[in-house]
Amino acid sequence: MPTYNEAGNLPGMADALMALPLPGLRLLVVDDSSPDGTGDIAERYAERHGRDRMSVLHRAGKEGLGRAYADGMARAVTDGARYVLQMDADGSHPVGKVPALLGTALSTGAAVTIGSRYVQGGTLSDAWGAHRRLLSRWANAYAGTILGTRVRDITGGFNLWREDALRAIDLASVDSAGYSFQVEMKYRAVRRGFGVMEVPIHFEDRTIGESKMNLMVQLESVTMPWKLRARARR
Ligand SMILES: Nc1nc2c(ncn2[C@@H]2O[C@H](COP(=O)(O)OP(=O)(O)OP(=O)(O)O)[C@@H](O)[C@H]2O)c(=O)[nH]1
Ligand SMILES: [Mg+2]
What we know:
InterPro entries: DPM1-like (IPR039528), Glyco_trans_2-like (IPR001173), Nucleotide-diphossugar_trans (IPR029044). Residues 1-168 form the Glycosyltransferase 2-like domain. This protein is α/β, with parallel strands linked by helices. It has a single domain (2-233), classed as Spore Coat Polysaccharide Biosynthesis Protein SpsA, Chain A, CATH 3.90.550.10. The protein is 44% helix and 15% strand. The chain contains eight helices and nine strands. The chain has helices spanning 10-18, 38-49, 65-78, 98-108, 130-147, 163-169, 180-191, 215-233; strands at 2-3, 27-31, 54-58, 83-86, 112-116, 123-124, 159-162, 196-200, 202-203. α1 links the parallel β1 and β2. α7 (180-191) packs parallel to α8. The termini are far apart. The model has no long low-confidence stretch (mean pLDDT 96). The chain binds guanosine-5'-triphosphate (GTP) and magnesium ion. Guanosine-5'-triphosphate is lined by residues 2-4, 6, 30-32, 62-65, 68, 88-90, 92, 179, 206, 211-213.
């Protein structure tokens, strides 16, 4: 779970995850020295829940969620995780769906299980107006068409990865700094022949704290699918 200024969200997320009926679940928070003290709060919660169940990776400064995710996933695999779930801290991704993602991965053998807004049963926050819905749909279709994948929610950030898929993807060489990370990772997995399943989720809007989306991140998302396609052709 990457965090940057999520002091208002992290406590609730950590408590909810630790209360799930999944005794093997470990939480790794990857904090980029948040000025609001999220890293210290994460340490306190790790103490409370037990260091064997929760830990914190502190990074020196804000490098974007893609870098934070790549680092955190690499750490989780090194530490022996069999499955790694990526999940935002802002409350957009439903904690209650975590067991369903794992259940689907285990029962189907999928290497990548996507918490998907865009399969039958997937829903978006009522707070999303027509413009935002269209933009998200369009971003998905844009990346999917350029890359020729049939993944329905290729831009989503609530995904469960089997450990061998993460090893095969070579996290150290992932390019994306921002949220095109989601697209790049799935494309890499599909290209390597790993099976993908999508489980419907309800996507909630963040209610506490601020979005870290900015123009640079958006530009990267526009150019990245072309880069990935060109590289694949080479
Ligand atoms: N460690 C770290 N985490 C980050 C960074 N940027 C964003 N995050 C975290 O990544 C998650 C997603 O960030 P958001 O700002 O919600 O971005 P988003 O979900 O694409 O955008 P919204 O739809 O506006 O919420 C949150 O948990 C953030 O705290 C970063 O540079 N470093
Ligand atoms: Mg968000």
